[in-house]
Amino acid sequence: MTTEQRNRIIKMTIALLEEFIEPEEITAPSNKKNSDTNSEPTEMLTVRECTDLIQGLTAYTVRRLASRGKIISVRAGEGKRGKILINKNSLLDYINSKKD
Question: Hey, which of 9, 16, 41, 93 has its CA 20 to 30 A from 63?
Answer without folding.
Answer: 41
